[in-house]
Amino acid sequence: MKKLALALACLVSVAFFASCTDPVENPQPSIQVLQQDGYLQNGDVVDVNYDELTMPFGFVMASNNETNKALSHLKVDVESFDLEDASLGVTNWADKDIEGTSYTYEDAITFQLQRDLVGRTVITAIVTDAAGETATATIQVSLNEAAQPLTVRTFTWNRHGGEDGTGLDEFGLKWTRNLSKAIYAIIEPVDGAILYRFDPTDWDATTTDVEKAALFSEATPADPQQWKEFNVAGAMTQEFDVVLGTAYNGEYHLMHITKGTYYSFKGTDATITGEAK
User: How far apart are alpha carbons 79 and 224 in whole angstroms?
Assistant: First the structure.
């Protein structure tokens, strides 16, 4: 009888100590962004130009060191935001069962930036283990529109006799008259366009669309809204180093006027040439 009582006492003692075992304070599995050269990292700023840009990314997961519960599921979502930080929607990127006590997920995402959409993208990964415990890691990427080099092209504006000038429409300009007193050509903006006058050094200094936008943002419209320095009754060839700009139909145009020529018949035929970007 004493032996039975002793055995029962031992069982009670074991049960008591087992019930007093502290639970695991942090039973969650672990997950972190894959640290590898060329892979997206949280906080990256990505320059995106007109072409698609594909970037790899990944996450590394492991079971909790104390519970050692196997990993069971991975969910990856991608959410994009516009300039005003409004969500453009969530894409369920991956939703898969996984096994084992460690797992590495690798994938790639393609960014294609529209001209007026510069925002951010957030990649969120949630790993779940066999006990239902979860852990989360995110990669937040800011998207930045890469500066585009400006293309330089030549232009020719011509006015024959009393006809309207040609070649000016795309710039939001018109040449419909000459100043009669000294017979200077009058170049002026059409309705809805704004004319600017810049320093000649601005022409060579402005090489990208970002620089051009900055140039116009700090500029003051020309006063008066005319350019009238080409004397269509003076020397038959005149050299210029004049930089004009227009804001028209949501675009900025930069023009470098370099030459004016004319010849007389019963009236005049005048031509202005230069480069634009």
Answer: 49
